[in-house]
Automatic annotation (TrEMBL):
InterPro entries: NAD(P)-bd_dom_sf (IPR036291), SDR (IPR050259), SDR_fam (IPR002347). Belongs to the short-chain dehydrogenases/reductases (SDR) family. This is Uncharacterized protein. Gene3D superfamilies: NAD(P)-binding Rossmann-like Domain (3.40.50.720). SUPFAM superfamilies: NAD(P)-binding Rossmann-fold domains.
């Protein structure tokens, strides 16, 4: 899909692998400068190298979307470096792996709170931090990616 994203600054959370990585690469292929985000610096560096190989600028910023201070710091770094954020893709999400695939009455409070903090609060934290800059710029797009888990019931 071709869309002109030349001169656009895009932040894609959770973009060190999977869907987020594919979105980041697609944005770069369409001309955007891409901020890669995740918790794994090694994977983040590889995605940045892939984007650079396409002739586009990219940086990696490690930040946990479940930590509002880290999110705010990330957004500040982007604004200081690029002056704006044109596109935010809230893609970061976690699951608890096989140990979390248990009946709802066995699901731990700790796993529940961690997932809610990243998958729900993280979208709020990032949107809140970026939206004020988009209002000042008088432009911007926020895209939220969700999981099939949001519509699949927990077993019991």
């Amino acid at each position: 899909m071709k869309v002109d994203l030349k001169n656009k600054i895009a932040l894609v959370t959770g973009s060190t692998r999977g869907i987020g990585q594919a979105i980041a690469l697609s944005f770069a292929e369409n001309g955007a400068t891409v901020v890669v985000n995740g918790r794994n610096a090694e994977r983040g560096k590889k995605v940045v190298e892939e984007i650079n190989a396409l002739g586009r600028e990219s940086i990696f910023i490690r930040a946990d979307m479940g930590d509002q201070e880290q999110v705010n710091s990330m957004v500040t770094q982007i604004i200081e470096k690029f002056g704006r954020i044109d596109i935010l893709v809230n893609n970061a999400g976690i699951n608890v792996g096989k140990e979390g695939r248990v009946p709802v009455y066995e699901f731990t409070d700790a796993n529940w709170h961690r997932i809610i903090n990243v998958d729900l609060n993280g979208v709020f934290y990032c949107s809140k931090a970026v939206a004020k800059h988009m209002v000042e710029q008088k432009s911007g797009k926020i895209i939220n990616i969700s999981s099939i888990v949001g519509i699949v019931p927990l077993r019991f």
